[in-house]
Write a structure and sequence with these properties.
single chain; 338 residues; alpha/beta; 434 Repressor (Amino-terminal Domain); Rossmann fold; 3 domains; six-stranded parallel sheet; four-stranded parallel sheet; 12 helices; elongated
């Protein structure tokens, strides 16, 4: 067996073998799940693999030193329109340049994202696109070791591995908080999904509370649930929030899906929007524009973000030096729900 064909872009099979105190052939046997390896030896090899962040290269032989024409794209979800719009923008640029995007989905789970990264790295993609700046330590290690450009999307509030294209989620939330306060709202609540997984949503909530604090206000009530955001969760969440805090005069939702669900609750129960209760979301989805009352929201340029991410990678592959951080901004839309 050609042991060099088992290497990642920087960590080699031989390094794993040295750390584990075994031969390269033994490491290969563990990687290929051969039965004639003791449990103790297998555990030592697996521990060395985890420590070094080693990923086997499945493109062996003649392809072992070549990059593919694939771009790895890992997103948290395909169940709403946000990330498909990003993918469409990126794919248009990659397709024109002769590259193909390969999609992985993390389900807002950093451990699962790490697994997807490790699996995709074995196919030696020419570039990487990921959503957000937060990853497990091992995922960051793998991505820092690859000799391919990496672009993180939809956020600039933090340290990027390589390049980032997005906007400040904290500032988007902060602008909404100040907007509510400047509109004269004083008893303000929040409705969101699982913020331990939706980390950009958590940053917007943090910024929202900062915006309120700048005006001498604070949240009077909030509802969050360990579930992904949805219309139904937004509707049920607002109902529960108002049951415990009936005097609220404004509610900020983690995104437009949740806010539209909240508006449906108001319509079903006769709550006058916006005179009795103001509502605002985030994303600038088309459904928010199609409502009888246009939703107040922050619109992110998702298609453009995908295009720019692809252009950053293609520029780096062409030997150019694109900017490491690209802030695309956002548009605050004062709709009819406030």
């Amino acid at each position: 067996m050609n042991e060099q064909s088992e290497t990642t872009s920087s960590i080699t099979l031989e390094e794993v073998a040295r750390l584990a105190g075994v031969s390269g052939m033994t490491v290969s046997r563990v990687l290929h799940d051969h039965a004639n390896v003791s449990d103790q030896t297998r555990a030592k090899v697996q521990a060395a693999i985890a420590t070094l962040g080693y990923v086997p290269n499945r493109l062996a032989g003649a392809l072992a030193t070549a990059k593919s024409r694939l771009i790895a794209v890992i997103v948290p979800s395909l169940s709403n329109i946000v990330f498909p719009e990003v993918l469409r923008g990126a794919n248009e640029r990659f397709g024109a340049a002769g590259y193909q995007a390969v999609i992985g989905v993390s389900d807002y789970d950093l451990a699962k994202e790490e697994e997807v990264i490790a699996a995709m790295q074995s196919w030696r993609p020419s570039g990487w696109i990921l959503a957000g700046l937060e990853h497990t330590p091992r995922a960051r290690q793998i991505l820092r070791e690859v000799r391919s450009p990496v672009v993180e999307l939809m956020d600039i509030d933090g340290e990027s591995i390589d390049m980032s294209v997005g906007f400040s989620n904290r500032e988007a939330g902060r602008d909404t908080g100040r907007f509510f306060a400047d509109m004269g709202r004083r008893r303000i609540g929040y409705v969101g999904g699982d913020l331990s997984r939706d980390l950009r949503g958590a940053k917007r909530k943090e910024g929202f509370e900062q915006g309120l604090a700048e005006r001498g206000l604070q949240l009077q009530g909030e509802f969050t649930a360990p579930q992904s955001s949805s219309l139904l969760l937004g509707r049920a969440g607002l109902a529960q929030l108002l049951q415990s805090h009936p005097d609220l005069d404004a509610v900020y939702f983690s995104n437009d899906d949740m806010a539209v669900g909240g508006l449906m609750h108001c319509m079903a129960t006769g709550i006058d929007v916006p005179s009795r209760l103001a509502l605002a979301g985030f994303n600038g989805l088309e459904i928010g524009e199609a409502l009888p009352l246009r939703l107040t929201t922050v619109k992110s340029p998702r298609h453009h973000i995908g295009e720019l991410a692809a252009e950053q990678i293609l520029a780096r592959l062409a030997g150019q030096t694109p900017p490491l951080r690209h802030d695309v901004g956002y548009e605050f839309i004062a709709g009819q729900t406030t």
